[in-house]
């Protein structure tokens, strides 16, 4: 089964210094039916004004994945750790109890655009506090995984995050390991088809889709496409 969630259905915010779109309940946006999906707690796309910042705050026990689409960000914690992330790079923060985290747009004359995901972290797993990777120029690569396979960022949860970068007319079929996955268009138009239901959904820029009980998913691009497939077996 494939159930779409369009960008227009998502929660939004415009505080001047911050513009945001929320797939699931976050901040002032609350929908009791959309508190997350499996271990995916948060999926936000946010634009920070030049020089803007999020002040230090604590998190629940989650892995925070930041994918920078435009500009430059710096992430700091109250223990003195920091990582700077440019467009075309991703960073993973393994949040800790009693540690606060902040985010800064390091550019004084350019907005920062990024996607942020929160994933529940298993209590018995510990990873490096910060990880960073440069995104390869590839049609498909593994962005994050439980074991850091193929140089991917290592999560504290059984989740596999695939990054897709397709040209118009290209398609790719990916296995889905478990009962649930989530497909997100970063930009571009998608035709997604499941192998079990044979259902097909068309997604536009910013749209997403809940994937349920499909063994594999075929993604076709009708425009230049950048997308994430978040595979969550549990």
UniProtKB/TrEMBL annotation:
Ranges of residues in domain Pirin N-terminal: 5-119
Domain Quercetin 2,3-dioxygenase C-terminal cupin as annotated: residue spans: 142-232
Pfam families hit by this protein: Pirin, Pirin_C_2
Family: Belongs to the pirin family.
Name assigned to this protein: Pirin family protein
Lineage, uppermost ranks: Bacteria, Pseudomonadati, Pseudomonadota, Gammaproteobacteria, Enterobacterales
